[in-house]
Structure formats: structure tokens, C-alpha cells
Amino acid sequence: MNPSHHFVSEYARFAKEGRTYPLGTFAPLPRPQIAPDAPKVLIFSPHPDDEVIVGGLALRLLREAKWNVINVAVTQGSRKERQTERLRELKNCCDCIGFGLVQTAPNGLEKVNVKTRERDSAHWAQSVKAIAGILLKHSPRAVFFPHNLDWNSSHVGTHFLVMDALKVLPSGFACYTVETEFWGQNPSPNLMVELSVEQVADLIIALTFHIGEVRRNPYHLSLPAWMMDNVRRGAELVGGQGGAAPDYTFATLYRLRKWCDGKLADVYAGGRYLSCAEKPESLFA
Question: What is the pLDDT of residues 9-49, one digit of tens each?
């Protein structure tokens, strides 16, 4: 009897069973009381759904540190006929998980990609101005946005959009930067954040409110497997080649740095693990 057969068949069974679970029908999850002067976190999401896919650390900051987490909808997708519906789905998702929501424009920004940055400077400058205005208004302690090799054109475009916005802000502006990954793996993450079963399950529940997207491609069901693989990768990329893997089941990988004096700076040497037993705000001390 091959015990691995049972192991794999159970994975396959749950993946199929998950397709029968309801989508977007859940009550809002408990949200802590947030003080008016609580530190803010801005998640610059290239598309509606990215806010929870990469939002493990943000969720922990909301619940454990009681920081004010706000999702910034950089775009509302490329299909104009779906933009209104995607905004409605996004609002429902953010209401469920407890994130605030800011729009960049009535239908989101358009043409957020490197090609626009290189060939349409006027359009790009207007988008940079919109992002810079949001940064100045909220003065966040930390900003989340994709790393520069995150494959999808809007993800890569959002990276450069946020970076260009930071560069036009006053020299005294400072915040921590948390670069995320999803479509393309970050070759140099320096932070692995452990997530509990409850946290991963809640992220999946929130993700189901993006009904049109997960019906097209039920990627919410592969989120646990992706986070398990992050532990494998993070053990080497964050912990060091040949290092022992921490006893985590689920984790998300990030690159944490700080924007100050008009440039990015490292906040620690090497890599760092953040377990469920540690305070997430300790990363930003």
C-alpha cells in the first residue's frame, strides 16, 4: 500500500469538493476596533482580488496590531464591461475581510503597464499624480505593491507606478515598502510570514466575493497549495541556501525595505521569518 496515494488523492478530492462550495455569500468577518490615529497600510492592487491573494501580512497587521489597512484599487480590470461589477465584488470582498477601499479613478486607472510608461509620458504622469496624491493624503506606515518581475503587465506596471509616485513626493516622505508576488516569483524575497489555518481560510472566503473571476478560474482553491510551496521556497530564499525549513504549513513571501531620503534602503541584513507567535508590527519598528 502506497501511503502517498492516499495523501495525494485527498488533495485531489478536496480540490474537487471545493468547487461545490458557495461563492460570496458570507457575513463580514470580525474586525477589530481601529483607532483614528492607527498606522495605515496601503495595498496597491493591480486588479480586484490581489488585495487578499497577497494580503496575509496585511490581515495580520489589521487583526493583531490593529493597523488601518486600506486597499487601493489601481485598476478595475481591463474589460470595461466588467469594471462596475468588479468594483462591486471588490467592495464586498473588502467588507468581508475588513479592509478599507480607495478608488484611483471612477473606473480605475487605465493602461498601467511599462509600454505606457515608455511611450505615453503624459498619460503616465497623470497616473503617477493620482498615486502620489493618495500617498500624501494617507501618509502610510507601509505600502504593499508587486515586485518588478511579477510577470503580468499590470502587476509590473503597478510596481513602477508606485515607485515613480514615491520619487515625486517631498524628500522627507518615508514609509516601509512591502513588495508582493503572485504571477512571477520574486527571486530575492527577504521575508516569510507564517499564516494560520484560520487566516488562510478567511482570505479564501473573502476571495470568493470576486465571483466572476473565480468562476472563470477557481484559483481561490489553490491558495493553500501556493502558500505551502512558499514555505518550501522561503526556507532557501529567505532562510539561506541549505537551511532547515521552519515548521510552518502556510506562508507568504515578501521583500521588505524602507523608502527614505528619496531611495529604497534595506532594513535588515539577510532574511527574516515571522511566525504566528510573533507580533507583525515588529517588522516596522
Answer: 999 999 999 999 999 999 999 999 999 999 999 999 999 99
Q: pLDDT tens, 50-99?
A: 999 999 999 999 999 999 999 999 999 989 999 999 999 999 999 999 99
Question: pTM of the prediction?
Answer: 0.97
The set of cell numbers assigned to 211 is 465571483
